[in-house]
Amino acid sequence: MSRRRTIRETVENGINDLDELQASLLTAIQLEFSTIPPYLCAQWSITSADPSGVAGLIEQVATQEMLHFGLSCNMYTATGASLKGEIAAPDFVPVYPATGLPGGVHPELVVALAPLSEQALQTFMAIEYPEADPVVPAPDLPPPPPPPAGPTIGQFYAAIAAGFNAVFPDGSLPTHPAPNQVTATRIGDDTLFAVNTVADALTAINEITAQGEGASTSPDEGTFDPGRLAHYYTFAEIYYGKTVVPSGDHFEYAGTPIEMPAVHNFSAQPSPGPDQQTFIKTFTALMTNLEKCWRNDFSIETAISDMFDLTKAGVFLIEAGITPQFTIA
């Protein structure tokens, strides 16, 4: 496989052959997963004093990130590539706090594992920042976070979509049906589907980008989940403390107030100990089993259930003031 390029290089130079397409998809897989630990830690930090149900809102986003991870894996294996040794690898998950995300996304953005806060929400909004400007104007207070340094994740996926069309101009992938595809009845409210054609890949890319940054004229997820806000606007509602509502021919943060929940504070650095080792062991099992899913050696439903064990271990650490360590042993 060709060297892994930065996302900026991919956006500026395009994808011209199969090696570049597969390298970009591998970056996409790693990128999608890299958002999950910080989102989970913010969700796990929320106490039962959560009158506006913020924990549930963040959980929906984290669940959709797992869907995006799965769709990216399906796109990757559909090109004939193998994920063996790629997911259950020590360097797959960033070491947090990370400056920038995999592939050089937002290279100056510091992404940490931290309790939910205004700072954490600013970081999450930067990660999910729309390719075009947000369609909902920011209120004056609290101060809107500055746009992150480009290119955006949406621009990266646009380059991948163009790459699929360039590498497979007749719309057919190397094998039909594609090998090592994972499908599930549901992941949250969505369906993980197989990628057997270029058209399937483009549908997957459209779903990933619409759920992350919203439709071009609306803050919701477009045809995929009409009426549900995209990730950027979900985090923005929590940050601005108001739901998004239509107002004439535009939208505003002027609806039902959203109250920031109480949170458990935890150490800025992970700590050793038996409970941390339990978390690391559980996380290693999850990643090993996820990789096996894309080799047809494991059930995705069983791997999803591993997430419940991880959540239990993670919440236990955070309530004890300890940062979970997302490390593969």
From TrEMBL:
Domain of life: Bacteria
Annotated Iminophenyl-pyruvate dimer synthase domain residues: 25-239
UniProt-recorded name of the protein: Ferritin
